[in-house]
Write a structure and sequence with these properties.
elongated
């Protein structure tokens, strides 16, 4: 007859309440480190050496569930959306990353091109500027002249679903 197996004793972390083996995958691993060093030094020997398991380069924002939020690239994306066959809307995204106030930018764009321009929330809940009309190629020169912080190499067009540099 087979021997009766004994139950496995699992030690749970007092900080995050995960099993100690899974603490490093939890959202609060930095808070768990002192407890792990004191109670389970054999599981994480690299913590005892004084160094952390990963080099500190820059503070990364963590979302719930341990996911890492990517840092946004500083770039302006210009997209032309066609509606009703002949009417166009030019959408400008990413100007706020360069320190440009979107309400002021929409007023300047509206006056320069004699069209309606407004700040709206896009599909990703980020604000963008909608300008009536197809001004996609004239707008690059205007943006670089008006706001010198925005370089022409940081401006991109979306054409046929692909991101194309403006320069």
């Amino acid at each position: 007859m087979a021997e009766k197996r004994q139950p496995v004793l699992v030690q749970y972390c007092q900080v995050c309440s995960l099993p100690a083996e899974y603490c490093e995958f939890g959202p609060e691993f930095n808070k768990c480190k002192p407890w792990l060093i004191q109670n389970t030094p054999d599981l994480y020997p690299d913590l005892l050496k004084g160094g952390s398991s990963e080099p500190k380069q820059e503070e990364v924002k963590r979302l719930p569930g341990g996911k890492i939020k990517k840092k946004e690239k500083k770039e302006v994306v210009i997209e032309k959306v066609v509606r009703n066959k002949r009417k166009c809307i030019t959408t400008v995204k990413g100007l706020e990353l360069f320190g440009v106030k979107l309400s002021d930018a929409s007023k300047k764009l509206g006056k320069k091109f004699a069209t309606g321009a407004s700040v709206v929330k896009g599909p990703t809940d980020k604000e963008q500027i909608d300008v009536q009309g197809d001004i996609s190629y004239d707008i690059v020169e205007f943006i670089t002249e008006t706001w010198p912080d925005v370089l022409e190499t940081a401006i991109f067009f979306i054409e046929d679903g692909k991101k194309v540099p403006a320069a």
